[in-house]
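Researcher: I need the complex structure. Ligand is iron/sulfur cluster. Inputs:
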Amino acid sequence: MTKPLEQILSQDSFNKNDLVTLLNADEQQRQLIFAKAAEIKEKYVGKKVFYRGLIEFSNLCGKNCYYCGIRAGNKNAHRYEVTPEEVMEAARYAWENKFGSIVIQAGERSDKNFVRRISEVLKQIREMSKGELGITLSLGEQTEKTYREWFESGAHRYLLRIEVSNPELYGKYHPNDKKHDYQKRIESLQLLRKVGYQVGTGVMIGLPFQTTEDLADDLIFFRDFDIDMVGMGPYIEHEHTPMYQYKDQLMSKIDRFYLSLKMVAVLRIMMKDINIAATTAMQAIDPLGREKAIKVGANIIMPNLTPTSYREDYLLYEDKPCTDEDAEECKRCLEARIHMAGGEIGYGEWGDSKHFRKRKGEN
Ligand code: SAM
Ligand code: SF4
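Model: Output:
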């Protein structure tokens, strides 16, 4: 017999059945989960929302994940790499506007020149901001040497989504070759921790063939890995990808959105002091998606600082938002919306994961 939702919410720990019940909550019941998550968020991480200015450095990628619009095999994508001067301009904007941190994200490449260019940019940002700007990287799987080089050049957080924690499903969404190996992704997460990064991971929600049980396992994966940060959001189809063939089997976008909100809320209840991002994909479905995620547990937001001329080309999925707003416009509207969602912006602070600090014995 399944337990009543109220009983589950009063527990301190949750088994897989409990998580499935929470994720299956209907419209009325999910309000109880959201209220509990908001209460826990306020108690353990407070009202503050931290900015990570997002720089989509390049859409060149050597991989072929079946879901992604910038996969190597998509010959329709117009490829770019932001110049070092443009990265510095975006980083300076973030620093001068007291964003606290930036994220540098790109397709996965590991050639020497790419690794070196990233190291140089990291050192320049550190110098320009006198070490005040926190830097998160999201550049895929790399060797320990590369992770170390970037860490020593100034990055201190790294985001590498496991995408889906079930290895069998992972095999369905990726080519079956050495470049797309589930085990290697896990090892990369372990390497990142070994090198000293605050480690973030995440999953896509509402993928074809994915069940509520799989999502419950994803939450358990985050807990067992003792992860510091999570960025997760709805899967959104892209016409020029192999996974587009399953578009008729997907749940509606709005259902994917609410399932994602429940994932954020349940994760906040489970892992009280980690950083959770309100992701762009949530905003792609609901214009107020990120603010809704903040209300139910997220505490990180990533305003887009990519030069507007490149935004249309970093198209991971259809209807990606904010492709035509410049940084100033984005900042103004976001500020107002975060206040509306009951949050305060942690200007000028790194907003590191409290969970990480605690594990390190720092507080
Ligand atoms: N290349 C790096 C990597 O894969 O780790 C970082 C950049 S990649 C574009 C960032 C994230 O975009 C991926 O981890 C994936 O979860 C997400 N993504 C890609 N295609 C997506 C889609 N169709 N819908 C939602 N998210 C998607
Ligand atoms: Fe490349 Fe990342 Fe997209 Fe996979 S998800 S194709 S690694 S950019």
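Model: Summary of the prediction. The mean pLDDT is 94.
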